[in-house]
Amino acid sequence: MSTTTTLLGPAEIRELAERAGVRPTKQLGQNFVLDGGTVRKIVRQADVEPGDRVVEVGPGLGSLTLGLLEAGADVVAVEIDPTLARLLPTTVARHVPGLTVVAGADDEPVVLRDDAGRNRLTIVLADALDVHALPGPPPVALVANLPYNVSVPVLLTFLERFDSLERVLVMVQAEVADRLAAPPGSRTYGVPSAKAAWYASARRTATVGRSVFWPAPNVDSALVRFDRREPPATDATREAVFAVVDAAFAQRRKMLRSALSALAGSADAAVAALDAAGVDPQARGERIDIAGFARIAEHLGPVGGRPGIVEA
């Protein structure tokens, strides 16, 4: 019997899906990774080390889950599909020698434990956007092939709720990757870029072709790496800063003095806040970095019930 972890191949992935009656759905944005080389590239670029606590969103049939376990990580997998969540323990136990399935109660996650009593895989059946806490030690990394339709909300939600996350490596639609990693002034810079920059520095690390997925999507994918950093030094709340970001990009190419007038209460108040923040009122949101948005939020203060300055 093999004592090493084995990854899923294309034939087995299709066989697993057929046996379980699983058909990938556009509604859930499911595209399963067929290629073991791509799985190992994701794990490698995430700098996963033995003993790391890693959260994976949308494990699907288990391709990336097995790659993370192979690297020695302890994985918390959040899966929204009950059928896939039920299938995953059996698949992993077959591919990772020495793991035992410990069935949880109805309201508890299923755990796969090794011979030393270490929980190597914990499966949480939930919508990732509804997850506010995870079982076990806090995760240090998020590594996932994110469904295209919820990739940005899931990413920002986990960065907000789990400040233990030191790094993130996600595979997303290539266009989304460009937006997430875009610097101020670039054509693709916008709300996702600015909000992600509050939490972390971002860079696109690789392009992933369509042929490594089943079913093959209509677009290319890409890997984006995020490394946690401190948010801008500011007295404004994150909510206040994000409200400024949303207003600035509500109508692209609009000058900030106009874009922020409703938020500030008037165009004059917007101009005064922008001047105080050292930002040209005729500038557009596409030119402002997250530190600039934070300065603007400070000088706008609480407006219309919106949180503004943090009370000391």
Automatic annotation (TrEMBL):
List residues of the Ribosomal RNA adenine methylase transferase N-terminal domain: 38-230
Q: Identify which top EC class this enzyme belongs to.
A: transferase
Q: Where in the cell is it found?
A: Cytoplasm
* Chief location: cytoplasm
The residues listed in the UniProt record as binding S-adenosyl-L-methionine, with positions renumbered to this chain, are 31, 33, 58, 79, 127, 145
Q: Give the InterPro entries listed for this entry.
A: KsgA/Erm, rRNA_Ade_diMease-like_C, rRNA_Ade_Mease_Trfase_CS, rRNA_Ade_methylase_Trfase_N, rRNA_adenine_dimethylase, SAM-dependent_MTases_sf
Question: What does this protein's UniProt record list under function?
Answer: Specifically dimethylates two adjacent adenosines (A1518 and A1519) in the loop of a conserved hairpin near the 3'-end of 16S rRNA in the 30S particle. May play a critical role in biogenesis of 30S subunits.
The text of the family note is: Belongs to the class I-like SAM-binding methyltransferase superfamily. rRNA adenine N(6)-methyltransferase family. RsmA subfamily.
* Name this protein carries in UniProt: Ribosomal RNA small subunit methyltransferase A
Question: What's the source species for this entry?
Answer: Cellulomonas terrae
